[in-house]
């Protein structure tokens, strides 16, 4: 099992969700987060004054999938979230040791 975490631009969330549904992804977790990457934030102009935004608003998506599905999920997220501009985000894939469904007691692949 894999845990896939993607940090993307907020306006791309619906496109990513729509790309994952046909793959059989039955659930995901979304968090509103702030951060910066190589661009180190950006300069904004507000009422004629320039100021620096150190942390940009992003959305973090977390989805647990079986190993067979992981590559396709990563590809779908990349395709749906890409704008071609700086700040498109990152995807991280980690090994998921165990999973439990609290309601039924199912474990691992059955819990996903």
TrEMBL record:
SUPFAM superfamilies: GlnB-like
GO cellular component, one term: cytosol
Pfam families on file: P-II (PF00543)
In-chain residues carrying the UniProt-annotated modification O-UMP-tyrosine: 51
Annotated Gene3D superfamilies: 3.30.70.120
Record keywords: Nitrogen fixation, Nucleotide-binding, Phosphoprotein, Transcription, Transcription regulation
Highest taxon above the source species: Bacteria
Gene Ontology MF, one: ATP binding
Any one of the GO BP annotations: regulation of nitrogen utilization
Assembly description: Homotrimer.
Sequence similarity: Belongs to the P(II) protein family.
Protein name according to UniProt: Nitrogen regulatory protein P-II
Lineage: Bacteria, Pseudomonadati, Pseudomonadota, Alphaproteobacteria, Rhodospirillales
Gene responsible for this protein: glnK
